[in-house]
Write a structure and sequence with these properties.
Bound molecules: beta-D-galactopyranose
Oligomer: single chain
Largest sheet: 9 strands, parallel
Number of strands: 29
Structural class: alpha/beta
CATH class of the largest domain: Alpha Beta
CATH architecture of the largest domain: Alpha-Beta Barrel
Number of domains: 3
Distance between the termini: 23 Å
Radius of gyration: 26 Å
CATH topology of the largest domain: TIM Barrel
């Protein structure tokens, strides 16, 4: 197994460190407190373009040299960032064409961050120059552990430079204008293109826009940002052998980038999947299940291998949904949950709370209140735990189930012109994952083209777009159980409706859909097994499958189907069950540790040599016993099946 953070011993622990906000004397206090907390990894330089390159052609590395040297002397390794996520005002003034334009054609101003057009050649050149200069200077610096390209790529631009780059991308995808016209179905509404110059990004239009154009623009935007990542990574690689990463955003329902495609370029010997995750107070699922999904998704991107939680909040996230504080013990439990699910450490945004600027009220490892705070005490506790957990590094998570996520399908299914405003697939995938989390089932988040062998159950709650059934069929025939949710398999990669619904899945499911019956907001459909469905129903008939449950109002059609195929079986649900448990009860789904109440999380990590570690995290208000034997690494004391795991606490048991 590749050691993902070669220069860091054990698990990574630390956060974004932005000392340019502070007078020099504070830096000494910083490193002293980092030592006290057990920090061994700091992300430096993320937003420091203005310091290292304060004017055109002017490079000043003195301050960064000093920070790097200080951290090296203090035993803190550096995840060194290219500060390309936030060009400074001088850059925007000198190159106004690099500022992004929105879908109405309005150019945005500088004064925040992320103010660039991904397709701007001037910006691209500047970003690569920045990466190259930093790599050349710091490649052999003793503090350097790895590289961090930009920050949470998310920019989108609709300007003329973007239009030109989009046309080039479309030529590669569709060949010529005939190919484009076919893919976008332009014969409808007289949209036929006769010259590439007519083709535009999906800017604001008069009525429902062309879905093919929107989908391709989403793909293009993701690829354009991936291109930036790769260009900077190549510039770094020309000078340095250290691993390279960037922080992918896996918070809430963020699905702007096709991380499955990104993962092709973020795995390997000198790459690392790293993610940022912030628990959202107003999310539809509980905090712990949010953490579990983000972590399982990250592990999926890392193909089951190691990954790193690059950012989380030590306490409140003062953004989007308002200020909320974490309860005592909460961030400790969450941090352990990420590690249980494969992260090789936990880092925060940020080390010390900012006195000024847009995020002065975002929490930090070292809060405004200083060291006499719950947050600081918990940070120190976690640092201590991580030291004791060093031996788990490199172990892998054991899981028996998987849930399928395809970004392109998610985008297409939620784009304008779809049949239901409530069908949004990503929250639905997360809802199923959360139901499995509550049952203690450890579940990978996989892509429909991944090798699915070895999982006893695979869930595809919402897989609208699917080219063919080959991979899923193989999984079922070889003994797997596949569960497919409604509105799946019905369009191809161009969002064209397959013949014979449910299209690509019709043969596999043994079901024919007569027509779709989407439900109104809040409407419910009663099933004859006593359950009910929401959002969507279908008039469907068994053609090879057996009907397991039907609709009370449509007795001639089926609601839930099951079919045995090869050594396995496939289920099809034509509606979204309001309560997933009655359906999950029908499956043979083993939790990692049987008999635990919902909210007591149990996940195993294994080493190839047979050592196993059981992470037991009690998110509930009641003590429980965990049927395992060995040593709790957090306390160094023996664990027996009679040992109590107190409420709001955790154990990491090296099992006998
Ligand atoms: C992240 C971002 C950080 C910081 C953090 C807290 O999304 O990468 O720079 O802004 O959120 O809001």
């Amino acid at each position: 197994m590749t050691d993902i953070v070669p220069a860091v011993e054990g698990l990574g622990f630390g956060g974004d460190y932005n000392p340019e906000q502070w007078p020099r004397r504070i830096w000494d206090e910083d490193v002293e407190l980092m030592r006290e907390a057990g920090v061994n990894l700091a992300t430096v330089n993320v937003f420091s373009w203005a310091s290292v390159n304060p004017a055109p052609g002017k490079w000043e590395f003195g301050q960064l040299d000093e920070i790097m040297d200080l951290l090296a002397e203090s035993g803190v390794q550096v995840d060194l960032a290219t500060p390309t996520a936030a060009p400074p005002p001088w850059f925007s003034v000198a190159h106004p064409e690099t500022l992004p334009v929105d879908e109405y054609g309005r150019r945005k101003n500088y004064g925040s961050r992320g103010e660039y057009c991904p397709s701007s050649p001037v910006y691209q050149e500047a970003a690569v120059e920045m990466a190259s200069k930093l790599a050349e200077r710091y490649a052999s610096h003793p503090a350097l552990a790895m590289w961090h390209v930009g920050n949470e790529f998310f920019q989108r631009c609709f300007c003329d430079q973007t239009a030109a780059a989009f046309r080039t991308w479309l030529t590669e995808r569709h060949g010529d204008l005939d190919g484009l016209n076919h893919a976008w179905g332009t014969a409808f509404w007289s949209q036929t293109y006769t010259d590439w110059e007519q083709v535009l990004p999906s800017r604001v239009a008069t009525s429902t826009p062309n879905p093919g154009q929107i989908l391709d623009f989403q793909r293009f935007c993701s690829d354009a940002l991936l291109g930036l990542f790769r260009a900077e990574a190549a510039a770094i690689e020309a000078h340095s052998e250290a691993p390279i990463t960037t922080n992918l955003m896996v918070t809430g329902n963020f699905t702007m980038l096709d991380y499955h495609r990104w993962a092709e370029h973020m795995n390997g010997d000198r790459r690392l999947i790293a993610v940022d995750h912030y628990v959202l107070p107003a999310d539809e699922i509980e905090a712990e299940a949010q953490v579990a999904f983000a972590a399982d998704r990250s592990r999926g991107l890392a193909r089951g291998g190691p990954w790193l939680l690059m950012e989380q909040a030590a306490n409140s996230s003062a953004w989007r949904q308002g200020f909320f504080a974490k309860k005592p013990g909460e961030q400790l439990r969450h941090s352990l949950s990420y590690v249980a699910r494969g992260s090789e450490g936990a880092l925060y945004f940020q080390w010390r709370a900012s006195k000024a600027g847009a995020e002065r009220w975002h929490s930090a490892m070292l809060p405004h209140g200083g060291t006499e705070t719950k947050t600081w005490r918990e940070v120190k506790t976690l640092g201590g735990w991580f030291r004791r957990l060093a031996e788990i590094k490199g172990s892998r998570v054991r899981s028996r189930a998987a849930i399928l996520l395809d970004h392109e399908s998610v985008w297409a299914s939620a784009n304008p012109g779809e049949m239901s405003a409530f069908i949004d697939p990503y929250p639905e995938i997360r809802r199923w994952h959360a139901a499995l989390w509550r049952r203690g089932v450890v579940c990978d988040v996989a892509h429909p083209t991944d090798d699915l062998a070895g999982r006893s159950v695979v869930f595809a709650p919402s897989l609208y777009m699917l080219e063919d059934d080959a991979n899923l069929r193989r999984y079922v025939e070889q003994g797997g159980t596949l569960v497919v949710g409604p509105n799946s398999g019905i369009v191809d990669r161009n969002d064209h409706v397959h013949d014979g619904l449910p299209g690509a899945l019709r043969d596999l499911l043994g079901v024919r859909i007569e027509e779709f019956h989407p439900l109104r907001d809040g409407e419910r459909a009663a099933l004859d097994d006593g359950t009910e469905g929401a959002v969507w129903t279908e008039a469907a008939h068994a053609e090879g499958a057996e009907v397991v449950a039907g609709y009370i109002d449509y007795p001639s059609t089926g609601a839930i189907f099951r079919r045995e195929l090869g050594d396995g079986a496939v289920w099809y649900l034509t509606t979204r069950p309001t309560d997933l448990d009655p359906f999950l009860d029908r499956l043979d789904l083993a939790p990692e540790v049987p008999g635990l109440p919902a909210g007591v999380e149990a996940v195993r990590r294994d080493h190839e040599d047979g050592r196993t570690y059981l992470f037991a995290i009690n998110h509930t208000h009641k003590a429980v016993t965990i049927p395992s034997e060995g040593t709790d690494l957090l306390t160094g004391t023996p664990w027996t099946p009679r040992t109590h795991l107190h409420s709001n606490s955790a154990a990491v048991i090296r099992e006998r």
